[in-house]
Amino acid sequence: MAKGRDNWLLTPSAMGEVDAAAAASGIDSFGLMEKAGQAVTAAVLKLFPGGERFVVLCGPGNNGGDGYVAARALQESGAAVALYHLGDPSKLKGDAATARSRCPVPAEALETYFPMRGDVIVDAIFGAGLARSVPPVVVDIVRRVDEAGAPVVAVDLPSGIDGRTGTVMGAAFKARHTVTFMTRKPGHLLLPGRLHCGSVETVDIGIPFRLVEAKDVHLFVNGPQEWLAALPTTDATAHKFRRGHLTVFSGPATATGAARLAAAAGLRAGAGLVTVATPPDAIAANAAHLTAVMLKAVETGNDLDDYLRDERRTAFVLGPGFGVGPKARAFVTALAATGRHLVLDADGITAFAEDPQALFSAFADGAPRLVLTPHEGEFARLFPDLADDPALSKVDRARQAAARANAAVVYKGADSVIAAPDGRAVINENAPASLATAGSGDVLAGIVGGLLAQGMPAFEAAAAGVWLHGEAASKAGASLTAETLINHIDRWH
Fold first, then answer.
1. Please, what are the domains in the chain?
2. Is 70 helix (H, G, I), strand (E, B) or coil?
3. CB 432 within 8 A of CB 473
4. How many CB atoms sit inside 10 A of residue 49's CB?
5. Which of 179, 316, 410, 456 is the most buried (most CB within 10 A)?
6. Residue 312 has pLDDT above 90, yes or no
7. Positive or negative, the Cα torsion across 488, 255, 243, 409?
């Protein structure tokens, strides 16, 4: 399926290459800056029509050039405008120098700005390409603006946010609104950058989109366009065996709830049959709560071997409430050896903390059959070197982890990143804060398992599962629990 333009993400370096390609093709680069600055002006006047004074803060590069265009346009609209610059504006080059030369608004040094009542700030100091800590003068200005409570409209990205990683580089404005150009950048979605952007508006300033497509970095915003074509469909010939059989492993009698949540979610996600495979001592506890979900005693490796003789049992979830130890590792190894698809979550991930390579080796061959769903702590247990590398973004970590494990990796969080071994990655943005509740991760594992059971490839099942999980949470409302969340799972169509 063709990608929607709103779902493209480019890193700042890739966007810089697009800008250069546009200029090399004969497009007037200052004309692009003019359109960018005018778009910022339109957004500011629309959002703050009663602003008493518009204060434009300009930096030493092209982001500052956009600011000079915006200052000129705001003055031409009849607004009161004040202009402040970082560094020596006489050293500006190229389009930024042209923009400054055409701006009639007198400018003062940035450090002399103190917010006044009624000010609306246009932040054009640094753009998305910032990769170093902001200078002390910017730290001071950010503090002054925060203390004053003045609203900020950011140009491209709030100054102080690294557009590649979403990291705060010393200090950063918290914008009410951000205007970016052509595509969003990872820093608009990754935390904590997302929290600084406010609402984000993406403006087409006239660069042919084929130049964006040529710089495809295989990174998109998660949504149906990424996986809908792989989502199984049903028709009049469908029956439960054709819709796949999902098995969820239960923990002991004192820890059965997580498996039941995953099993119910898998059934709701469309699996035709779902079985909870349980130790004998947990049969009564599980049977008291299961209806449409079946129950099977599986305690030992021999029990599992017998269970796997039915080749229709193709997809499994192991981890929620299962326990950490040699049994978990043995069961995972057995599933891998028989070619099964597996969602490994929670305890299942932690079980391999002492020897992650044993897990990776078990699933090393062929198309990805493993989906890993770690949160930050679990990710660090399997990939400690990646977790400790400050140069890597969350996208970088997820991609490298997926390649190492030959697995689809769901690196969980409010900014979940889903990555495939071939380098494809998506950032999820539809997860409400209400998902921070006990059991919601078990529900996610079950949704992904249910989609795997129906034949979706690992990456597509993982991406779809995360998105459907977020949609269900939005429908369930702010007071959701894991149990009520399940009732709102609905296959998108």
1. 10-216 (3.40.50.10260), 224-486 (3.40.1190.20)
2. helix
3. yes
4. 8
5. 410
6. yes
7. positive
| Closest to 41 (Cα-Cα) out of 54, 59, 32 | 54
From its phi and psi, is residue 245 left (phi > 0), alpha (psi between -120 and 50) or beta?
beta
Cβ distance 415 to 425 under 8 Å?
no
Identify whether the C-beta of residue 371 lies closer than 8 Å to the C-beta of residue 346.
no
CA gap 332, 426 in Å, rounded: 27
Bind-site residues? 62-66, 123, 127-133, 156, 159, 258, 321, 375, 412-416, 441-442
Mean pLDDT of the chain: 96
Contact 31, 58 (CB under 8 A): no
Per the annotation, where are the binding residues for (6S)-NADPHX? Answer: 62-66, 127-133, 156, 258, 321, 375, 442
**pLDDT greater than 70 at residue 402:** yes
pTM across the whole model: 0.95
Residue 155 phi, psi (nearest 5) = -95, 115
Interval 445-468 mean pLDDT = 98
Q: How far apart are CA 352 and CA 393, in angstroms?
A: 24
* Mean pLDDT of all residues in 291-305: 97
Calculate mean pLDDT across residues 240-263.
92
CB 119 within 8 A of CB 53: yes
Distance between CA atoms of residues 321 and 254, nearest Å = 9
Measure the CA–CA gap between 24 and 300, rounded to whole angstroms: 66
197-211 b/e with 16+ CB inside 10 Å = b?
A: bbebbbbebebeeeb
Annotated binding-site members for AMP: 412-416, 441
C-alpha dihedral, 313 to 402 to 186 to 452, nearest 10°: -10
Annotated binding site for K(+): 63, 123, 159
Question: Would you state the pLDDT for residue 232?
Answer: 86
- The contacts of residue 348 (CB under 8 Å, 6+ apart) are 318, 319, 322, 328, 332
Residue 447: pLDDT over 60: yes
- Count CB atoms within 10 A of the CB of residue 443: 29
**pLDDT tens sequence across 161-173:** 999 999 999 999 9
